[in-house]
Amino acid sequence: MLLGEYLEMLPSRKGDFLKEHGFSTADVPGSQGTTMSLAISPEMGQFLYNLTLMRRPARILELGSSYGVSTLYFASALQRIGQGQLIASELDASKCARLKHHLQITEVQHLVAVWEGDVFDLFNKLEGHFDMVFMDTWSNLYLDLFQQLEPFLKPGSVVITDNMYTAPDEVRDFKQYLDGNPIFSSTTLDFESGVEFTVMI
């Protein structure tokens, strides 16, 4: 009965519904005791794939790659268009090992540079700008991450952020920041988890 009610409600209500019943799809425990986001849905994966085909980005940054489901969608699109590079980051060591394995068996490892460690440390190593960014890490850190990310964006850069519906309290300050910043145009797409689509003007 709960499942039927969940499936029929508006996407924007699902996060609160899960919390009311003691569940969450935003985060699960990682092997190092951290909370790591769950894999994206097939619909979200296809969206990322098609967006990559449309944008034809030279550089993509992925913050929070987990086991590499979203990474494979990005890399497969880059392989199809024959250009572009992806930096994938993941803190959890066991997930990072699985991510690298998945890249190898799908033969797209040459398109992806994997960063194992804290994403905030990664910013100290980065140079240049990114055409696309996907954020799917700890929801309560989105604002801090985005502000660290801003110097690496340029007009036309697209930032996709997951879990806007499934973690509404944690992302509220991030959403308010985007809505109040005139250099960004941002809207929440009605995927099940809620996906923020942000463009630097």
Brief rundown of the structure:
With 201 residues, the protein is of the alpha/beta class. It has helices at 2-8, 11-20, 42-55, 69-81, 93-105, 119-122, 142-149, 168-180, and strands at residues 27-29, 35-37, 59-63, 85-90, 112-116, 132-135, 158-161, 184-189, 195-200.
Shape: globular
User: Mean pLDDT, as a whole number?
Assistant: 86
Main β-sheet, in a few words? 7 strands, mixed
Could you tell me the number of beta strands?
9
Helix content: 40-55%
Order of strands in the sheet with most strands:
5-4-3-6-7-9-8
Overall CATH architecture: 3-Layer(aba) Sandwich
Order of helices and strands: HHEEHEHEHEHEHEHEE
- CATH superfamily (homologous) name: Vaccinia Virus protein VP39
What is the CA-CA span between the terminal residues? 45 Å
How many helices? The count is 8
- Class based on secondary structure composition and strand pairing: alpha/beta
Tally of distinct domains = 1
Highest-level CATH class: Alpha Beta
Q: Percent of residues in beta strands? A: 15-25%
**Under CATH, the topology is which?**
Rossmann fold
- In the predicted model, the low-confidence regions spanning at least 5 consecutive residues are 23-38
Radius of gyration: 16 Å
